[in-house]
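Work Package 3 (structural annotation) set out to generate three-dimensional models for the target panel prioritized at the project kickoff. During this period the team completed the workflow that converts sequence records into discrete structure tokens, so that structures can be stored uniformly alongside our sequence database. As a representative example, we reproduce one entry of 153 residues exactly as it appears in the project archive.
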Amino acid sequence: MRTTQFPLTVYYDAGCRFCNAEMTNLMLRNVQDRLRFVNCAEPGFAGGPAPRDELMRAIHGVDAQGQVFIGVECLSRAYQGVGLPWVHSLVNLPVLRPLLQRLYPVVARNRYRLPQWPIALVFEVAARRAAERAARRAERCAQGRCDMDDGNT
């Protein structure tokens, strides 16, 4: 398996509430600045590792060595980058990986038709908790007790 050389630039659809909620969750956890985020939803978008229509079909990530990761692989590496390596490990379980790789394109293709509020709510709650942790971490730093790798507490 290829290793990820951070930073990882993530190309996502900010026009999708589900996608935007998940990226906000990652942004709030990105305290070590290992991820870069690029909204490819704008109609004139012309950058990235693939044409805009491909970027809109599936999330893409490009690491520091130019390796491209798509779909579930991109997301698992993004979570690894923000200090949640267990997500990457879980996604790579032999039983789960094939299921997720089959499910992702279906979800991505239908993301505007699926009821987004329950899924987005999960990520929005996670993002709020990540923001609270970041605020506590910043307060500790202001008090001279800064610990950037606090185990996501």
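The helical segments are 17-29, 52-57, 72-81, 85-91, 96-109, 116-142.
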